[in-house]
Write a structure and sequence with these properties.
With 388 residues, the chain is of the alpha/beta class. The chain has a seven-stranded mixed beta sheet with strand order 3-4-5-6-2-1-7, with helices on one face. A six-stranded mixed beta sheet has the order 9-10-8-11-12-13, sandwiched between helices. A hairpin with a 6-residue loop joins strand 4 and strand 5. Bound molecules: guanosine-5'-diphosphate. Guanosine-5'-diphosphate binds next to helix 8.
Length: 388
C-alpha cells in the first residue's frame, strides 16, 4: 500500500547506459531529504531556493558526485546525476538513508487516482512507438475510464443490449491494446537464399541479420523491433525452411515453425520469377510440403525484383520488392501495417490495454449475457478501481 504521507525516490530514466539519470523525489520530506545529501556550489539550502531554480553542486555521498538539483514544488525535487548504474544507485541509497522509500519507476504512482492511470503509465514506459503512445495517452487521459463508466450508466438505465454492445466494442480493441506494449509479431519465412535476412535489414533500416551467399547460413531466429506505420512490430527472420537431414538445420527449422505458429503475420518470401518451390503454387502447398503450419493469410513477397527481366511479373498474389534497391518496400511496409491494424482506432477512442482490464470486461460481458446485471456492474466497477 502506498501512502500519500510517504516520501519516495524513483529513478525516472531507464536503467543502463545514458549520459544523465534523473531521480525524482516526492513527498512531504522530499526537500529535507535532498538537503541532507546535497550541497549547492553557491547558495542556500534547497528549502530556501525558489521553485524551478536549477542548482549545481555536490552530492555528499562518498563519491562526491556532481549533480544538478531542482525543487519543482513544495514536495518535489529532481536530482540529475551522471547516467549508468553507479551514480543513480548512490543517490538512491543516500536518499533511502535519509528516510525515502525507493521505488521502481513502474511503481511511481503516488499521485495516480486510478488503477487504469497506474497501468497506463507503466505501459507508456514500455511503449516504443509514437502511435502506440498516442493510444495509451488517450487512456491515461480518461478515454477507457469514461467508456466503462458510460457502460455502467447504460446498464443502470436497464438498456442491457446497449451495455452489451458497449462492452463488446471495448473488447474488440483488446488485441490491439495488448500489442501496444508487447508489439505485433511478424515472421519472415521462405526457402534459403531468397533474401529473407536482406529483407529484414531493409525493413528495419540497418544491418542486423547475417547475410551470406551459402544457403542455410542464418540458422537461428533473429528478431528486431521496428516501427511499422507507427506501430511496434517485432520482425523475426527465420532459418531457411527446407527438408533436411542436418540436425542443426532441423532444430532451427523447428524454431522457425514455432515462430510461425505464434506470429500475427507471416511474410512468405520467394525470389522473383522463381516458383516458391518447384511444383507448388500456393502458400498452402508450400507449407504443406515443408510440414509447416499454414499461416493464416500470409503476405507473399517476391524479392529480388531488380533481377527480373523486363515485363516479367511475379507469380500469384506476391508483392514485388527488392531488398537491394528498396523498390516496393514502402508498399510492403504499408501492407504489413494494414494487415496488423486494419482499423486503427480514431484519436480519443477507449482501448483496454492490460490483461486485467480485458478479463474484467470479458467477465462483465458474460454476466450481462446471463442476465446477472449486478455481477456485470461489479466487474465494470473493478476496471475503474482506485490506485492502491
Ligand atoms: P536468406 O537466406 O533468405 O536470408 O537470404 P539472404 O538475405 O542471406 O540473401 C541471399 C543472397 O541474395 C545474398 O547474396 C543477398 O545479397 C542476395 N539478395 C537478397 N536480396 C536481394 C535483392 O533484392 N536483389 C538481389 N539482386 N540480390 C538480393
Amino acid at each position: 500500500m502506498s501512502s500519500h504521507h510517504e516520501t519516495f525516490a524513483a529513478l525516472l530514466t531507464p536503467p543502463g547506459r545514458g549520459a544523465v539519470a534523473v531521480v525524482h523525489v516526492a513527498g512531504p520530506a522530499a526537500v529535507a531529504a535532498v538537503d541532507r545529501c546535497f550541497r549547492a556550489a553557491n547558495g542556500p539550502p534547497l528549502a530556501q531556493q525558489p521553485f524551478g531554480a536549477i542548482r549545481f553542486g555536490r552530492w555528499s555521498s562518498e563519491t562526491g558526485e556532481e549533480v544538478v538539483v531542482c525543487r519543482t514544488a513544495d514536495d518535489r525535487v529532481e536530482v540529475h546525476c551522471h547516467g549508468g548504474d553507479a551514480a543513480p544507485r548512490a543517490v538512491l541509497d543516500d536518499l533511502a538513508a535519509a528516510g525515502c522509500t525507493v521505488r521502481e519507476w513502474s511503481g511511481h504512482s503516488n499521485d495516480a487516482d486510478s488503477l487504469i492511470e497506474v497501468e497506463a503509465r507503466r505501459a507508456l514506459a514500455d511503449c516504443v512507438t509514437d502511435r502506440a503512445a498516442a493510444v495509451l495517452l488517450d487512456q491515461l487521459g480518461g478515454a477507457l475510464a469514461e467508456a466503462v463508466a458510460d457502460a455502467r450508466r447504460t446498464l443502470a438505465a436497464g438498456k442491457t443490449d446497449d451495455a452489451a454492445d458497449q462492452v463488446a466494442a471495448l473488447l474488440a480493441l483488446g488485441p490491439l491494446g495488448r500489442r501496444l506494449t508487447s508489439g505485433w509479431r511478424v515472421v519472415i519465412a521462405g526457402r534459403p537464399n531468397v533474401g529473407k535476412s536482406s529483407l529484414m535489414n531493409a525493413i528495419v533500416g540497418y544491418r542486423r541479420a547475417i547475410v551470406f551467399d551459402e544457403p542455410g547460413v542464418t540458422r537461428d531466429v533473429v528478431s528486431e523491433v521496428a516501427a511499422i506505420e507507427g506501430w511496434p512490430v517485432e520482425l523475426s527472420d527465420t532459418a531457411g525452411l527446407r527438408d533436411t537431414d542436418d540436425p542443426l538445420e532441423a532444430a532451427s527449422a523447428q524454431r522457425a515453425r514455432a515462430a510461425i505458429e505464434s506470429a500475427d503475420l507471416v511474410l512468405l518470401v520467394e525470389a522473383f520469377g522463381e516458383p516458391i518451390t518447384p511444383g507448388t503454387s500456393s502458400a498452402e502447398d508450400l507449407c504443406e510440403r515443408l510440414g509447416l503450419p499454414t499461416p493464416s493469410k500470409p503476405i507473399r513477397v517476391a524479392n529480388k525484383a531488380d533481377l527480373a527481366m523486363a515485363g516479367c511479373e511475379p507469380g500469384g498474389e506476391a508483392m514485388a520488392v527488392s531488398a537491394t534497391t528498396g523498390a516496393g518496400l514502402a508498399e510492403l511496409v504499408a501492407a504489413i501495417g494494414r494487415r496488423l491494424v486494419p482499423d486503427p482506432p480514431p484519436p480519443g477512442r477507449a482501448v483496454p490495454f492490460t490483461a486485467r482490464q480485458q478479463e474484467r470486461l470479458t467477465r462483465a460481458a458474460a454476466a450481462i449475457d446471463l442476465g446477472d446485471l449486478e455481477q456485470a456492474d461489479g466487474h465494470l466497477q473493478a476496471v475503474l478501481a482506485p490506485a492502491d
